[in-house]
Amino acid sequence: MVEKQEQFEPRILGFLCNWCSYAGADLAGVSRISYPTNIRIIRTMCSGRIDPLHVLEAFRQGIDGVLVTGCHIGDCHYITGNHACEKRVAFLKSVLPEIGIDPRRLRLEWVSASEGGKFARVVKEMIEDVRKLGPSPLRKELQKSASE
Amino acid sequence: MIEQQEPRIGVFVCHCGINIGGVVNVPQVVKYIRTLPKVAYAEDNIYTCSAEGIDKIKAAIKQHNLNRVVVASCTPRTHEPLFRGACVDAGVNPYLFALANIREHCSWVHMREPEKATEKAKDIVRMAVARASYLNPQQESEVPVDPTALVVGGGISGITSALCLGNQGFKVYLVEKEPELGGMLRKINRLYPTNEEAATVLKASIEAVNNHKNITTLVSTTLKSVDGYIGNFDVTAVKGSEETKFKVGTVIIATGALEYRPTGLYGYDQYDRVLTQVDLERVLQSGKAVMDKFFKPQRIAMIQCVGSREDKPPRSYCSRICCMVAVKNAMQLKEWYPDSEVYILYQDMQTYGKDYEEHNRKAREADIKFINYTKKNPPEVTLLPDNRVKVTVTHALLGEKRELDCDLVVLSTPLVQHESAKELSKILKVPLGQDEFFLEAHVKLRPVDFATDGIFVCGTAQGPKDIGESISQAYAVSSRAAGPMANRKVRTEAITAVVNSERCVGCRMCEHLCPFGAHRIEDGKSTVIEALCKGCGVCAAACLRRAITMRHFTDDQIMAEILTAFVTEPSAPSESQSSLPSKGGI
Amino acid sequence: MSKAALVIGGGIAGIQASLELANQGFRVYLVEKNSSIGGRMAQLDKTFPKLECAACFLTPKMLAAGRHPNIKLLTYSEVKEIRREGKNFQVKINRKPRYVDENKCVGCGVCARFCPVEAPNDFDVRIGVRNAIHVPFPQAVPLAYTIDREQCLQCELCQNLCPVGAIDFKQKPEETEIEVGAIIVATGFDLFDASKREEFGYGRYDNVLTGLALERLLCSAGPTGGRVVRRSDGKIPRKIAFIQCVGLKGKSGRLYCSKLCCMYATKEAALIKKQVPNVDVTIYYNDMPEFGKGFEEFHQKARSELGIKYVRAEVSRIVENPVTHNLHLYARNIAFGDPIKAEFDMVVLSTGLIPTAAKEFEKNFPLKIGEGDFFVTANPKVDPVSTSVEDVFVAGVAEGPKDIAESIEQATLAANKAAAILKE
Predict the structure, then answer these.
(1) Would you say A43 and A22 are in contact if contact means Cβ atoms under 8 Å apart?
(2) Where are the alpha helices (DSSP H) in C77-179?
(3) Cβ contacts of residue B569 below 8 Å, gap of 6+?
(4) Helix B76-89 to helix A21-30 angle, to the nearest 10 degrees?
């Protein structure tokens, strides 16, 4: 099988809101805090923009883990956007098992503009957590080799 | 038209000295980017943000006929406006620009893994290129603002803001529900700490309002409806059965507050000699002779924090001014009755502000006696046979009880919101807080604004404060309102929501979710008021009919990034994704 | 008449006033004596009463001021002279040398990485360190480095490494002269020097610190990454005392109430409680000024839900145990005078606010100063921004102790009054 000899490297997709969490990730950079390269970041203006369909599509494409971040409750630049985000993530977590995805592959974190350290820590934790869960069952290579 | 042109994307990858170049193999990234579809040109620069780098972008746009630009460098939070400016100078709409963050999110956090960082940088730039291919030009626009203001409430705050705006040349409608202007100030005797008569202050202001050529005063009038948005409000006011309609550009809420009537507490409404501070002000206004006739007080007790600082909302707040009001009135009583004993029974004395320390000190010098009690052990009030009132107070620390036979007991109660304000909050679609006062957009950063643009609040309608603070806030709010009215326009965001009315079924979810009131339902369909939309996208993500999308953050654009994050050849996205065709001016 | 305005001070009040004026189309010169704008708010972790992230709200405003086409930032600069000429003011501004060309510097940070000198960092109340070539904090605006010449060894390593050749040791102080039609003074505050109250042992005892120092410890971007630890042994404190009203004393016990300190102490106590849930916190206070919305609720929550103790007492002195570095606190109950004695492993002094610039102004431009050295305004209630000099306004703590919300409100008012004059 593909991943036997090498360690499985999870692919993590991160959604960051422009105001707090993106600035927090920037601060991690400015402070030169290291974390592994497994994450790719998509910026939206507000965590409330993130549609459950976006997250589901990410999993459908074989992404192993999705990290959703936003401003702490009460700090949202658009006042209530992160409330909507919180509800949607809760909904997603209840729906993911129905399509065979472990809900632990989806994580919600509030990261403020001064929490560079927290951002790096959360990314590191998530990579390890998802590594333990193994590759996403929807990964194309696995499906392909399963049919061989 | 640019929307029909094939995207010709120019990619500029920055070394940022050694910040990026020292970790990421920039030439390798550029080589890779050149292989991507729709990339017409790619180059690397040492410092893209330098004057030289900017010139190179502009030159490349012209030379290679580029209609989309991607810069791979540092965080957009610093230089995005700079690069957008370069696009504009070269004739490319600034919203056809995308930035790939390969510094803060890549080279700086993966300094010990240069090969992996290089691979990640390729992914990041590929994502930005995919996004760029779906970008469309956007315009900011302007909304005209009618230079007329509506001030709701004719108390000192309303009067002050009306005068302030009127003096600046704006037309003002001042609406007051009572038959007279003046509000709470009509019931007050003297003001602290200057001790001037409230009536004098009020008289001058009311005269000024009534004689002002720019101010139209409507008394005995309430609001029936206020429709529209900043710059363009349609107001319907009602007096009896008569309706008046007019248009305004901004609305200022200055509806004030009431004194809480503590019925049932400490014998209020039961015993004749138990009054509130406002009741006392009325008596003081009437003069010493009246006080002599009804009370001839030799011993007076004032009880602070009656009906405020409670465990649960709405009256869990501290009303801030009652301590100073009590001291002010106590001093007045001492002045009239120098031999009397005046007691103030308090939990904490509010003494913020430059002059108040001084004021408190004078009170102690005038022999006003302060007794501290705790919330857990409040004073008790009982009726004496001669109609006087006995106050029993437990000293906070000693635990010792003192009994005071009083001729007059005055209860300091909090300011509370008007019942009618609840109706007003629905008419204007602005919120009330847990304390029932109007809830501003942000306590610290936008203390007189609402989330909805064009509507402001000042005075005690927003929370307990003294007259000076109300006046000060009224000035501040007039400045805020004057801004858009002076410019006769406001700019709107380019990043706004768009509703596909064919798909919309009018479920109102978007209207319900939007904190800025930017969705209105007309003819059963949702429409976006661009002047109010802030571009958060909560509605777009919520719409179950996929009828709403966000300019510059469309589903296609986000999807493009998801699909290119890790794989070079993603499988086709499921059909339910796009609500709108990817080209077509959105 | 000049259509430009001068704003002195780049804290939240100065930034707000500048943005208000710039958005209305006026040219603004924003002069700031430090190398970055941001002021005191940049040093805060969270704000009261809702414990919101200060940086999240401040940094976008700083960025907006930094790139607004109508605002010219003159950082690391001070106003030297103001002269009235007709309707305008001629202002001389002294630009201190950074020894780095602000226009060339791209903020890459290579210089600091290799600078051999470390010096105590004023931004972190001298708890943390920074290099001789430094930015005061990562989100500085403008993002340009500055060399502290006194600390600098002149090894020229930075100059050799700088990829854009921005280092220039030959830089000299520069004088600029500008003409403006209105001035807004928003010079903010310093905190009272706690060492002046010798009885509290500040500066002598390791585990006695000021409220601002504690704020830097609490800040996740601060010198300890957000961990509150004792200076003497790096351990997490178990029992903390806050002493309020640490400032100059007048006849009545203090000259004026600094208004903020009880709220900021409550805030810091609440934040510590979140970090170390079973820590024992006592606040020794006189009165609890609650001048803003939500403050009473916050205070009550601190008492009942978080278990923070509030004791009405006058603290007379602090004595250190030289072995454990714990602190013995001696106080007197306010109502009665019975003595209180308690042991803590950390003591925080809530120092009062003192206005920064008043005395300097008096020298070269007579703005009337009043009680506590705050600027006197026409009428503290009705017009709290007009000073004794026509067309000169004041905003923020320079006028008197106030919190962020009030500073912003006042700055808006001052800006609009200035705008009204400039429009004439």
Answers:
(1) yes
(2) 110-114, 157-161
(3) none
(4) 100
The chain C residues in contact with chain A (CB within 8 A) are: 45, 50-56, 59-60, 138-139, 219-221, 225-226
* Spatial distance between the Cα atoms of B294 and B52, rounded to a whole number of angstroms: 87
Asked if residues C66 and B80 have their Cβ atoms less than 8 Å apart, the reply is: no
User: How far, in Å, are B478, B536, C23, C142 from residue B229 at the CA level?
Assistant: 18, 18, 21, 37
* B479 shares contact with chain C (CB less than 8 Å): yes
Question: Per the CB < 8 Å rule, is B17 touching C163?
Answer: yes
Q: Are B143 and B489 in contact (CB under 8 A)?
A: yes
Scanning A59-88 for CB atoms below 8 A from B yields 60-63, 77-81, 84, 88
The CA–CA distances, whole Å, from A96 to A14, A52, A123, B62, B392 equal 17, 11, 21, 49, 65
Q: Where are the alpha helices (DSSP H) in C183-327?
A: 211-218, 261-275, 295-304
Per-residue pLDDT of C178-200, as tens digits, reads 999 999 999 999 999 999 999 99
Q: Prior bond to B27 cis, omega within 30?
A: no
Q: Chain A closest CA to B91's CA: distance in Å?
A: 26
Tell me the nearest-neighbour CA distance from C415 into chain A, angstroms. Answer: 24
Task: Kindly report the average pLDDT of chain C as a whole number.
Answer: 90
| Cβ neighbours of A146 (radius 10 Å) | 9
**Do residues A133 and A15 make contact, with C-beta atoms less than 8 angstroms apart?**
no
Average pLDDT, integer, range B59-81:
92
Angle CA B22–A10–A140, to nearest 5: 115
**Is residue B265 within 8 Å of residue B567, measured between CB atoms?**
no
* Domain architecture of chain C: domains with CATH: 4-96+173-188+356-423 (3.50.50.60), 193-352 (3.50.50.60)
Exposed (0-12), middle (13-18) or buried (19+): which is C130, by Cβ within 10 Å?
buried
Provide the whole-model pTM.
0.82
Tokens representing residue B205 in the block: 């202001």
Per-residue CA distances from C65 to B291, B453, C47, C188 (Å): 59, 22, 21, 18
Indicate the angle between helix axes A52-60 and B555-564, nearest 10 degrees. Answer: 30
Contacts of residues B241-247 at CB distance under 8 Å and 24 or more positions apart, as own/partner, are B244/B218, B246/B148, B246/B150, B246/B173, B247/B146, B247/B148
Window 352-371 of B, Cβ < 8 Å to C: 352-357, 360-361
Task: Give Dmax over CA atoms of chain C in angstroms.
Answer: 69
Instruction: Check if the beta carbon of residue B74 is closer than 8 Å to that of residue C138.
Output: no
d(CA A18, CA B99): 13
Q: Supply the pLDDT for residue B155.
A: 96
Question: What pLDDT score was predicted for residue B579?
Answer: 38
Specify burial of residue C307 (Cβ count, 10 A radius: 0-12, 13-18, 19+): middle
In whole angstroms, give the CA distance from residue A98 to residue A59.
13
The distance in angstroms from the start CA to the end CA of chain C is 8
- Of the pLDDT bands very low, low, confident and very high (cuts 50, 70, 90), residue B580 is very low
Q: How far apart are CA C133 and CA B165, in angstroms?
A: 50
* Predicted local distance difference test score (pLDDT) of residue B572: 52
Q: What is the mean pLDDT of residues C3-10?
A: 96
The Cα C71–Cα C140 span in angstroms is 16
Tens of pLDDT, residue by residue over B219-269, are 999 999 999 999 999 999 999 999 999 999 999 999 999 999 999 899 999
Chain C interface includes B433 (CB < 8 A): yes
CA distance B547 to C74: 49
Query: Under a CB-based contact definition with an 8 Å cutoff, are residues B237 and B164 in contact?
Result: no
Q: What is the mean pLDDT of chain B?
A: 90
- Residue for token pair 């209630």: C381
User: Cβ of B318 and C420 within 8 Å?
Assistant: no
